[in-house]
Every structure is written in C-alpha cells, then in structure tokens.
Amino acid sequence: MKIIIEKNYEEMSRTAAMLFAAEIMEHETTTLGLATGSTPIGFYRELVKLYRQGKLDFSGVSTFNLDEYVGLSPEHEQSYHYFMKEQLFEHVNIRPENIHVPEGTLDLKQDAGAIYEEQIRSAGKIRIQLLGLGENGHIGFNEPADEFTKTTGKILLTNSTIEANKRFFECREDVPKEAVSMGIGTIMRAEKIVLLVNGKKKAKILKEVTEGAVTARVPGSILQFHPNVIVIADEEAGEYLTGV
Ligand code: F6R
C-alpha cells in the first residue's frame, strides 16, 4: 500500500482529485468507481472545479457507485443517487446512461446485486475506485463479518453504522437497516484503489486496516492484498501510522 499523509482535508481532497483527473485526461473513455458520505465531498468539489476550468471532460466517463440504501428512492434526499447528483453529476457533462448506482428499491423478485455485477462486467473494468472508511473498518457497506463478501448484494447494517450515519437523518429510526453494496470481491477487482480517510475518529481503524491482521472482522484490511492501493489521509487520521 502506498500511503500519503496530507496536512488537512483540503489537501487530501485535492490530491485524490488529481489522481482521478489524470485518469480521465489520459483515457478517452474510462470507468470510475465512486463513494458517498462526508469524506469525498471535498474531492467532488475539486473535480467540479477542474471541469468548470475546462480541464476535464466527463463525456467518456462511466461511473459505478459503491452502494445505496435499501428502500430509498433516487429522489430521497438521503439516497446515494441524490447525493451523487448534488455533489457531481448535475455539475459536469457526464452522460446519464453512463451513471450507475445500485438500485435500493427493486422488488424482491429482482436481484439488484446480480444486475449490478452484470453492468460492471459489461463496462469492462473499474480503472480507479474511490473508497471511504467506516469507523468499524467497513468499505462500501461491507460490515465486519465472518467472511468477506464476494459480489454485490444486500447487507444488514450494523448498529455502529446506523449510529454513525444517523447524523444525516431526522432520527435514528429513519436510517435504513439494509443496503445494497458492491462486495469485497467486486472492489478488489478494480485496477487501482484510492482510500480516503480523514479525522481523529478514523485514526485507530486506519492503523488496523493498513498494519493489522487481514480479517473479515476489519473488512478494509483486505486492501493490504491489492497490488495497487493508495491511501490518502489527513494528519489526524494518519496519527498512528508507522512507516509512512
Ligand atoms: C459510502 C461508503 C461508506 C463510507 C464510509 C465512511 O459510499 O461506501 O463505506 O465511505 O461509511 O463514511 P463517511 O465518509 O461519511 O465517514
């Protein structure tokens, strides 16, 4: 794993955006894996800035988001469909047909996970995947478990994730209890992975993820086995890391 520690959130966001911008500039068409949550808001701001400066063209870009809450429609303000529209998609020239976010509202007869895996397969490969890190070590919504998840599917959210994400909802009861998420296997098939981590609250788990045992109890630790991972953290999150 390559680890970059930046002074603050803004520098972390800028460095990550430059990596994705380079990918977009170098290839006429490319496929990006994207994340939601608080962490990448500055990253999306930087990408939109580069687009407005005329430095980026999203017309050849396809995107696949990591996850979506089960039960929230794309119009729901806390859905990840909505988040992506607000933070990135409505500000750049990406083609709507190139945008992919798992469906949280398919009826039970349809397997949202299998549909998503097929869409990723037909796009070829995710060239660069953005990840944030849950306080419990999750990546995507792959929660600590006995085994690593292989493919995209439904996941029961843990209490700690519901607790961490309730800040976005009016009350804890409003937080969906399930999500559809790319599996760990899906994430590990990306060519390159960028893990963004900021803030004191993530310092301990970031050390476990990068230096601890590789275990499904700390899902992000599997990234130690990926050949092309760049961790970009701010100084607070990187506090306990050695050998940077
Ligand atoms: C979001 C996602 C999650 C978040 C993680 C950190 O698409 O997949 O793994 O990256 O929960 O969330 P924040 O950035 O809000 O701390």
Give the secondary structure arrangement, pairings included.
Layout (H helix, E strand, L loop, with lengths): L1 E5 L2 H18 L3 E5 L6 H12 L8 E5 L1 E3 L10 H8 L11 E2 L11 H12 L4 E4 L21 E4 L2 H7 L12 E4 L2 H5 L3 E6 L5 H9 L17 E6 L10
Parallel strand pairs: 1-10, 2-3, 2-6, 3-5, 6-9, 9-10
Antiparallel strand pairs: 4-8, 7-8
This protein binds fructose -6-phosphate.
Fructose -6-phosphate (F6R) binds next to loops.
Structural commentary:
With 244 residues, the chain is α/β, with parallel strands linked by helices. Helix content is 29%, strand content 18%. The protein has 7 helices and 10 strands. The strands form 2 sheets. It has a 7-stranded parallel sheet, with helices on both faces. A 3-stranded antiparallel sheet has the order 4-8-7. α2 (41-52) links the parallel β2 (30-34) and β3. α1 crosses α2 (41-52). The radius of gyration is 17 Å and the shape is globular. The model has no long low-confidence stretch (mean pLDDT 96). Residues 35-39, 66-67, 132-134, 138-141 line the site of fructose -6-phosphate. Fructose -6-phosphate (F6R) binds next to loops.
What percent strand? Answer: 15-25%
Q: What's the count of strands?
A: 10
Shape: globular
Q: What molecules are bound to this protein?
A: fructose -6-phosphate
Estimated radius of gyration: 17 Å
Structural class: alpha/beta
Biggest β-sheet description: 7 strands, parallel
Number of helices: 7
Order of helices and strands: EHEHEEHEHEEHEHEHE
Separation, N- and C-terminal Cα atoms: 10 Å
Widest β-sheet, arrangement of strands: 1-10-9-6-2-3-5
Mean pLDDT: 96
Unreliable spans: none
How helix-rich are the residues, as a percent range? 25-40%
